[in-house]
Amino acid sequence: PSTAASPTSSVADSGVLVVEDEVYREPSDADGESSLVDIYVGDGNEGGPVVVMLHGFSRTGPGRPDTDVGRLGEEIAELGATVFSFGWQSTWGFSEDSTPDLSCVGPFVAARAAEFGADADKIVVVGHSMGGEVGSMLALGAFDLDPSPNCTETGQAASPVAFLRIAGAYGMVGGPLDEDHTRVRVRSYPRGTFEELDADEEIVTGLTAAEIYRLDGYRSIPPASELDIVLVVGSEDVEPTANPDITAAFAEALQAAHVDAEVVIVEGGTHNNVVDPTTEAGQATLQVIADLLPTLH
What is the pLDDT of residues 250-295, one digit of tens each? Predict the structure, then answer.
């Protein structure tokens, strides 16, 4: 039988209403799992923005990220936003497995934001790691995906007004194919296929991020002059697709397309602690969000 949880509601010690395990996409076959979203609603958030949160890599399926972002979602809700934290099939970023989930994100928010007092015209996309990769596709592409027939809601989401990419994976380099890095794999969007490239060390460190970005799905970076883009990365992040070098290169690629992006380097931040609000790095990330949200009211 298919797996579908019943949503549960609780109020955290912070006063944030937490609605867990809402189904936003039904399984496509009898043995599949429903795709679930957790919703965090803070006091006094009436008319505040919607935050679409996308977790990073998951080894075990929708809603089970290797790095939990639930605590961050709760604290963002305390700032006056309504947070929709989507569990999505993230094994290969944008792929045949993940696009059905991601295609339902916009319709769900469009249909349900007002129910929780949020302004559906003020959408902020926040993605961590691989969630940052797909978040850029959703934010820059304004949720321009054909909805899956298994989406539980219908509707057209507004274009996002801001995008926060935290330790985002850029280009999703599949990794070097040999020890001296003369060949690498780059995954093509949205089919999840791989293209092999001759390359030197530069493509691994992200100095050719603009080309990786093109291969990752866009033949040109779409205009998004009205979109506020903030790229957060830890100074100690050593991930080959998410380090400070590749983050800077991605910002340069955007700026070359006349799209402004702010880069925030969190001192002492690693790939994972930048989304953990119990750490100094996580608190620094939260402060970036706290500074951003009031500008959207």
Answer: 787 677 666 788 999 999 999 999 999 999 999 999 999 999 988 8
Q: How far apart are CA 50 and CA 63, in angstroms?
A: 19
Its pTM stands at: 0.84
Supply 98's token pair: 């993940």
199 in helix, strand or coil? Answer: coil
Beta strands in the chain (DSSP E): 8-11, 17-25, 35-41, 49-54, 82-86, 119-128, 162-166, 173-176, 183-188, 193-198, 228-234, 262-266
Q: Would you say 196 and 185 are in contact if contact means Cβ atoms under 8 Å apart?
A: yes
**Structure token digits, residue 246:** 């590749």
Give the β-pairing of 82-86 and 162-166. unpaired
Kind of pairing between the strands at 35-41 and 17-25: antiparallel
pLDDT digits (tens, 9 = 90+) for 70-93: 899 999 999 999 999 999 988 666
Q: 217 CB contacts (<8 Å, ≥6 apart)?
A: 94, 137, 188, 189, 190
CA distances from 207 to 89, 247, 269 (A): 29, 9, 21
Tell how far CA 248 is from the center of its chain. 18
